[in-house]
Amino acid sequence: MTKILRIDSSIKGPMSVTRKLTDKVVAHLGGDVTLRDATTIPLIDGAWIGAAYTPKADRSEAQKETLALSDALITEIKAADVLVIGAPVYNFGVTGPLKAWIDQICRVGETFAYSETGPKGLITPKRVIIAYASGGVPLGSAVDMATTYLTQVLSFIGLTDVTFIAAEGVAQGEEEAIARADAQIARLAA
Description:
Layout: E1 3-8, H1 17-29, E2 32-37, H2 46-52, H3 61-66, H4 68-79, E3 82-88, H5 96-105, E4 112-115, E5 118-121, E6 127-133, H6 145-156, E7 161-167, H7 174-186
Parallel strand pairs: 1-2, 1-3, 3-6, 6-7
Antiparallel strand pairs: 4-5
Helix pairs in contact: 1-7
């Protein structure tokens, strides 16, 4: 059975367009789903950075505790066959909760490494489907900072098979935007 990791990052709860879309993507794909609500993930801080850059064998108990959530989030990614990420656009970019998840999972020696030729992703390739919703920022437009960032950061950790499902123009007509996204979901290979 396909193992799906679903990450939701909208602060709108049941009113979220991306949560509606991730529901539909997961139902379309089928499989065993692990749900991660990024709105509960704390921001990283100086103590987190200090712990992450301390060699594993030298970490104090406090540093291990500081990285416990990060370790769990990375384990979820490694265990999944497919990631389904809800990515609403707020002010041209990703949400704070999604950025918090990204910061927790980007760890040197765990999800990426530096080499003579530059950074190398350490996550084995897997499929990523991103449910994108915006009030008026067209996917791939000059003002879309979200998809470029997500594509780059996912590639940085080794995830390059990325598909976007877009509900664009939600502010001009939510039902129509969702209908266009539904058509894209219907065309996804299960």
